[in-house]
């Protein structure tokens, strides 16, 4: 287990350039994942990173890249991979770890918010790739997450005040104001057991699922985007594509 030496937090607040949101972590039921997440927070690794991917009606993904003035975006340093802990269901408003397709124990720094119920159906995040580990849920500010997912996209990256012409111009470089920036992630309640007040949805599908090897196929729909939850988002290198 990767231990957090600074705090054993259960509630953290994300301060972003487009509004804040607060997450209650499942310290006691997904301890490996939470400890890993807290280490990145305590090391300041998530500060000044960007929301690098949005798929409408599917996910908002971050925790992997920062904008340093040029393309491509700069990947943040990552720690060792962690063990999967698929205890909870990938329903709307939960936060989960991204990982490499075909390797259930490959999560490092990247995370995503489920903006709809992705537990079953075509996404099947509760069962695909060993199930995606939900390690917390948003308790305030989900409206701000929804607002971010409604911004204009350049490729799959939300880029406010960035035009379609600029997106398709390979010579144009945006500014910091053209990204959704996670300015800070702050521990606001370090009481370990505050998640006991939540009525979290358990993942009950994994034990009955038929193993499936996901096929990475590029698509802008949720049904074809499971492989895009990988740590290395291939579309990020070529951000300049048409807006949706």
Features:
two-stranded antiparallel sheet; alpha+beta; disordered N terminus; 9-stranded antiparallel β-sheet; Cyclophilin; single chain; 21% strand; 244 residues
Q: How do the strands and helices of this protein lay out in sequence?
A:
Blueprint: E1 11-16, E2 21-25, H1 31-42, E3 49-50, E4 53-55, E5 59-62, E6 65-66, E7 74-75, E8 94-97, E9 111-114, E10 134-140, H2 142-149, E11 153-154, E12 157-158, H3 164-168, E13 181-189
Antiparallel strand pairs: 1-2, 1-13, 2-10, 3-13, 4-5, 5-9, 6-7, 8-9, 8-10, 11-12
| Helical content class | 10-25%
Outline type: globular
The third-level CATH topology is Cyclophilin
Low-pLDDT sequence parts: 1-6, 209-228, 231-244
What strand line-up does the widest sheet have? 3-13-1-2-10-8-9-5-4
Summarize, please.
The protein has three helices and 13 strands, in the order E-E-H-E-E-E-E-E-E-E-E-H-E-E-H-E.
Structure overview:
The protein is an alpha+beta fold and 244 residues long. The chain has one domain: Beta Barrel (Cyclophilin). The chain is 10% helix and 21% strand. It is built from three helices and 13 strands; from the N terminus they run E-E-H-E-E-E-E-E-E-E-E-H-E-E-H-E. It has helices at 31-42, 142-149, 164-168; strands at 11-16, 21-25, 49-50, 53-55, 59-62, 65-66, 74-75, 94-97, 111-114, 134-140, 153-154, 157-158, 181-189. It has a nine-stranded antiparallel beta sheet with strand order 3-13-1-2-10-8-9-5-4. A two-stranded antiparallel sheet has the order 6-7. Strands 11-12 form a two-stranded antiparallel sheet. The longest helix is centred in the first third of the chain and has 12 residues, at 31-42. The chain is globular. Mean pLDDT is 85; it is low at 1-6, 209-228 and 231-244.
